[in-house]
Amino acid sequence: MAFGEQTAAQCAQAVGSTTSNCSYHLRALARVGLVEPGESADGRERPWRSTSTGLEFGPSDIEESRASAAAARAVDELTLAREEELTRQALARHDEQPDEWRNAEANHGYALRITASELEQVVGEIDRLVRPYIGLTRDAPPDDAEVAYMRVIAFRHPQSP
To answer: Which of 19, 101, 141, 151 has its CA 20 to 30 A from that of 59?
Structure first.
């Protein structure tokens, strides 16, 4: 729902499913408070809007169950695969973008020499910088604002001793 209010039909098109399946799942998400009905322009369509800007999955500490940790890892892996595909699509369309969007795009990777607490601080500062621009919660974006995607991944290098 990064594009704002969406109907079940629009969601179905985005995820390659059926309208009835998406309608069912939107109602289920509404029951747990993750989406809510939006405003209908003509009374016939039924748009939905997100009530949150993100979710965290996974055990909060080492005491969580192995099954919970495995489920969280599976969600993380699916999310990563989706984000990689989105990145590939963006790279494939890069040359088709207007100049200002091509110039604004970035694909950076950094190998940092940093402590765990410093990394936590850097990630927190990036989050504080980006949060005011989140489409679902941004008040009065400029008329020419479009949806852009930004991903921040930070972890201890897997080959670190």
So the answer is: 151
DSSP element (H, E) containing 102: helix 99-104
Tokens standing for 81? 């695969």
Assign 3-state DSSP to the chain and report helix, strand, coil percentages, each to 5: 45, 5, 50
Question: Which tokens sit at 51?
Answer: 């009530």
Q: How far apart are CA 110 and CA 104, in angstroms?
A: 18
- In the numeric block, the tokens 């998406």 are attached to 22
Q: Where are the domains of the chain?
A: 8-50
8 Å CB contact between 4 and 14: no
Q: What is the pLDDT of residues 81-140, one digit of tens each?
A: 999 999 999 999 999 999 999 999 999 999 999 999 999 999 999 999 999 998 877 878
In the structure encoding, which two tokens stand for residue 140, read together? 């009065």
